[in-house]
Specification:
Strand order of the largest sheet: 5-4-3-2-1-14
Number of strands: 14
Structural class: alpha/beta
Largest sheet: 6 strands, mixed
Helix content: 10-25%
Bound molecules: 4-methylsulfanyl-2-ureido-butyric acid
Shape: globular
Number of helices: 9
């Protein structure tokens, strides 16, 4: 019996700054209904899916930043997504800005802000939470840029690790993992999840076409997007579902190129527009096996005694 999960990559087009949560959720519900009509059991929405990608702006006042954050999940505006999951029998991955009152490393309760994703099952229950670890960009205002990328200012580094989890979608139990946007460029993310036997990684992103510190990469932004997810999938024998918030948002162009990648590294589903769009694939989780038990049989072939530098060293140090 194949272990099929039918997955919808629910790409969103641009979200204007003045678009309300209610309006965005309506767009997401339309995609969930389309997904249901395609027999999807799981849909993946983008990173920070409920608002415009606000780290492009520098705000002096914290109160101006906090309007983009959710204080509860579900909250009044997002509850319809959870209701639709139950009604349609579809799980979903959702990225959003999370404001939490919780203890820090010293045990002091304070307001904390994370770039977060949750996975919700078909009962409408949150089954896993992930907080983004690789925060790109910068912490201070850099007016020379055409637009800012202030994730290092507005978010703390995630404190939940890369934790694989078991979940059931449709009739299939599987091992899932989550990541967010810039995480997909780091092989460590895939490998840490791979070492937990992950079978499908869910991942949303907002990727501006223009990278101010390295404009020479701009023409390669779609290529790099596919390159990292295809290699991460193949080298760890896992499905990867990468979903964009795409198009021209508040004057900034973002890539689309949402894809569903098989454990072979092949793309089996893809969005072709820069708007709200659903790409669907029937994903057999057992297709991971021929990679996990042969070329990438970790227990047999990995040589961790030669990899210690990976955890002992952060930056590159060339030989003398
Ligand atoms: N949202 C996010 O993490 N975006 C980054 C842009 C960095 S510029 C290369 C990304 O990795 O797509």
């Amino acid at each position: 019996m194949p272990r099929i999960v039918t997955v919808g990559a629910a790409q969103l087009g641009p979200i204007a700054r003045n678009e309300s949560r209610g309006q965005v959720v309506e767009r997401m519900l339309a995609l969930m209904h389309e997904a249901a009509s395609c027999r999807c059991e799981l849909v993946v929405f983008p990173e920070l899916a409920l608002t415009t990608f606000f780290p492009r702006w520098y705000f002096d006042a914290q109160s101006d930043v906090d309007v983009f954050f959710e204080r509860s999940m579900p909250g009044p505006e997002t509850q319809p997504l959870f209701d639709a999951a139950r009604k349609l029998g579809i799980g979903f991955y959702l990225g959003y800005a999370e404001l939490a009152e919780e203890p820090d490393e010293r045990g002091a309760v304070r307001t904390r802000r994370f770039n977060t994703a949750i996975t919700v099952d078909a009962r409408g229950e949150i089954v896993a939470r992930y907080r983004k670890i690789h925060l790109p960009g910068h912490a201070d205002h850099e007016p020379w840029r055409r637009f800012q990328h202030l994730e290092k200012r507005y978010f703390e580094i995630g404190n939940l690790g890369f934790s694989a989890f078991r979940a059931r979608f449709g009739r299939t139990d599987g091992v899932f993992g989550m990541a967010i946007c810039n995480d997909r460029r780091w092989p460590e993310m895939y490998r840490v999840l791979g070492l937990q036997g992950v079978e499908m990684i869910l991942l949303g992103y907002n990727t501006p076409v223009h990278n101010p510190p390295a404009p020479e990469h701009d023409a390669l932004s779609n290529f790099h997007n596919q390159l990292v997810m295809q290699s991460g999938a193949y080298q760890n024998g896992t499905w990867v579902v990468g979903v964009a918030k795409a198009g021209r948002e508040e004057g900034v162009d973002h890539i689309g190129n949402s894809v569903i990648v098989a454990p072979s590294g092949e793309i089996v589903g893809a969005c072709t527009t820069l708007g709200d769009e659903l790409a669907v694939a029937r994903c057999d989780l057992d297709l991971t096996l021929s990679y996990k038990t042969t070329t990438f049989n970790f227990a047999k072939h990995r040589r961790p005694e030669h990899y210690t530098m990976i955890v002992e060293r952060t930056g590159a140090v060339p030989p003398e």
